Amino acid sequence: QVQLVESGGGSVQAGGSLRLSCAASGYTVSNYFMGWFRQRPGEEREGVAAIWAGSSYKYYADSVKGRFTISQDNAKNTLYLQMNSLKPEDTAMYYCAAIREVAPDTTRWEYNYWGQGTQVTVSS
Length: 124
Hints:
Elements: E1 3-7, E2 10-13, E3 18-25, E4 34-39, E5 46-51, E6 58-60, E7 68-73, E8 78-83, E9 92-101, E10 110-114, E11 118-123
Parallel strand pairs: 2-11
Antiparallel strand pairs: 1-3, 3-8, 4-5, 4-9, 5-6, 7-8, 9-10, 9-11
């Protein structure tokens, strides 16, 4: 049974940083396309960052490029999202996910599995 459990969300002021973690079980993160998406109430899911098996390829949405960094620890089977220079518009529920397909339009990414999410709130 696949389980993805996120942690690390919270409330920060603009310009601050947070590090999200995603512990996986029943699924080896290093073998698949993994990533993070976020969702605000009433809005579509927005892909944020993705990492291909073995970390050989990383993809970032334009809105977070240069501020967010995706990584994985294969020994711990854990995915991370380091978020720096946070902005109020980054406020959302963040989900760790096993990605089936990415697309230039990050609202069109498709997912096989995702976790329960962790809330990130950035105040101005």
